[in-house]
Amino acid sequence: MIMDTTEIQAIYSFSRLESLKEVYGIIWILVPIFTLVLGITLGVLVIVWLEREISAGIQQRIGPEYAGPLGIFQALSDGTKLLFKENLLPSRGDTRLFSSGPVIAVISTLLSYLVIPFSYHFLLTDLSIGVFLWIAVSSLAPVGLLMSGYGSNNKYSFLGGLRAAAQSISYEIPLTLCVLSISLRAIR
């Protein structure tokens, strides 16, 4: 079979079109995710700024005004400062347990995003038990809080970890009951 150059060029242009369609498909999958993340980030920055301004007004003091115009970059500078802080480990505590506690808390939070549909065509996992998986995975965060408090080998840090875990559990129980009641109602 002998092909002339116009047929070969048509094949190459078609393959380029298909690759562009795939690129556009990936871009349109990522657009809702980035829009959601950007909206949440800007919302948090505005809420933190408003909280500081309102607290300064109530306490009759000057609020954040040096980080950017009207202090709108104060939350970003606080986050940067937190990133570059020195990592302190307890000298008499269990360093592996102390360090793995926050990791478990963060991983359980990030794993709960598996069941959230970001768009109609973009699901990380399509499970029929998505709500129950979300409840189970998000309930692992108090374990990380307890591990950090216990790993410090300090009774006050352990009590702080117990308090944080109890607070987290006290928020999870009503949330779980509400979600389960809705999902049981939807089964009918």
Detailed description of the structure:
The protein is mainly alpha-helical and 188 residues long. It has two domains: 1-86; 93-188, no CATH class. Helix content is 71%, strand content 0%. It contains six helices and no strands. It has helices at 5-58, 74-83, 95-111, 130-138, 141-151, 155-187. Helix 3 runs antiparallel to helix 5 and helix 5 (141-151) runs antiparallel to helix 6. The longest helix has 54 residues, at 5-58. The mean pLDDT is 79. InterPro entries: NADH_UbQ_OxRdtase_su1/FPO, NADH_UbQ_OxRdtase_su1_CS. It comes from Justicia flava.
Number of strands: 0
Tell me about the largest β-sheet. none
Sheet/helix structural class: mainly alpha
- C-alpha geometry: extended
Write down the domain tally: 2
GO molecular function, one term: NADH dehydrogenase activity
Transmembrane segments: 26-50, 97-116, 128-148, 169-187
Subcellular location: Cell membrane; Membrane
InterPro entries: NADH_UbQ_OxRdtase_su1/FPO, NADH_UbQ_OxRdtase_su1_CS
Brief write-up:
It contains six helices and no strands. It is an all-alpha fold.
